[in-house]
């Protein structure tokens, strides 16, 4: 007969076995847009970590956008299938999770594997807590998780109720003893100074003034040897998009615009918009003028099918802005520009630029564009040959604004703020005269910005 001690040991092992649930494979489900593979950019967990439902597991990047994958189960991470920067395949295991067993639960491992989803394409910027869907970027969700905050308890002040970093910081500030790293506050754009703050700043301070850091200059890279690596993420998407664009016969048209009156108008409005916490550039005017022009020339806001047999005139003016980011060239778009004011466009551009700088542009921002402007002049250069982004049919490239001599109506030489614009159009459906007339109307709105007031709705 077995000894009493041996019986106790076996009993203990049996209890341990019962307390542990089955190990399930968390598979990467279809995240839409025909995506079959993604790149693992960052792991938020490691083997042995305990996770709960809706905890962030990792961030992956497709050729469309970055997506945060969250857990469906409560349990312990037993295995990570990929290293950082490795390619993960849709339908293949991402992690193994040892789930917590509960009474009355008799699901098999294969059933769990089938049911395990990644975050859906339309929900990758949401976190679902007790049936409540909350909009938040991956960085905001991570900040909330690190500080044990439930997003369902935070009121979002962003567009469409999106929770911003400011909302998380304000929520923490209301909690006694909440301590945050100072770097978090530096990431948030400070509001316009109040008169009291200005007066206080004018008084002599006992501490030395902060010294503005020197501008960061790129350092030369000497690898010493050839390096070959596969194209991934957005670079791979660019290959696909530009290969499709090569099939389009491009028609080019260039012109110059005198922005002298617009420069004066922006200077007059900047203090007002900054007082509302919004930075006003020239782009909101360029975008709104383009939308007003598209109302007269809807064929420029259209798309054609692959065989160029059908043309679809788009009702919404979703105007894209080519943006240079650390991840490469991205083209987020401002939705429904025809319904927005110049100030509302500026607000949306501020939001997109913040997301782009943080590498957090999602599918909703990067898809659905109908017309594109590329502000190459923000980096340098006066002319460009922009490439159309299919299925769009037109794109404009804006050069830098230069102060050049020009003659006024009286024949006197004056200082003028001149910008060159370069248009490309799909010559299969757009002729040169149409592109020229659209450009003339767009230029008229910008050279005489008061005319825009008459057509604004």
Automatic annotation (TrEMBL):
Its EC number is 2.3.1.-. SUPFAM superfamilies: CoA-dependent acyltransferases, Peripheral subunit-binding domain of 2-oxo acid dehydrogenase complex, Single hybrid motif. Residues 98-136 are annotated as: Disordered. Pfam families: 2-oxoacid_dh, Biotin_lipoyl, E3_binding. GO terms for molecular function: acetyltransferase activity; dihydrolipoamide branched chain acyltransferase activity; lipoic acid binding. Residues 120-131 have a biased composition (Basic and acidic residues). It is found in: Mitochondrion matrix. It comes from the Eukaryota. Its main location: mitochondrion. Keywords: Acyltransferase, Lipoyl, Transferase, Transit peptide. It is an enzyme of class 2 (transferase). GO terms for cellular component: cytosol; mitochondrial matrix. Its cofactor is (R)-lipoate. Residues 135-172 form the Peripheral subunit-binding (PSBD) domain. InterPro entries: 2-oxoA_DH_lipoyl-BS (IPR003016), 2-oxoacid_DH_actylTfrase (IPR001078), 2-oxoacid_DH_E2_comp (IPR050743), Biotin_lipoyl (IPR000089), CAT-like_dom_sf (IPR023213), E3-bd_dom_sf (IPR036625), PSBD (IPR004167), Single_hybrid_motif (IPR011053). Residues 23-98 form the Lipoyl-binding domain. Belongs to the 2-oxoacid dehydrogenase family. PANTHER family: DIHYDROLIPOAMIDE ACETYLTRANSFERASE COMPONENT OF PYRUVATE DEHYDROGENASE COMPLEX, LIPOAMIDE ACYLTRANSFERASE COMPONENT OF BRANCHED-CHAIN ALPHA-KETO ACID DEHYDROGENASE COMPLEX, MITOCHONDRIAL. This is Dihydrolipoamide acetyltransferase component of pyruvate dehydrogenase complex.
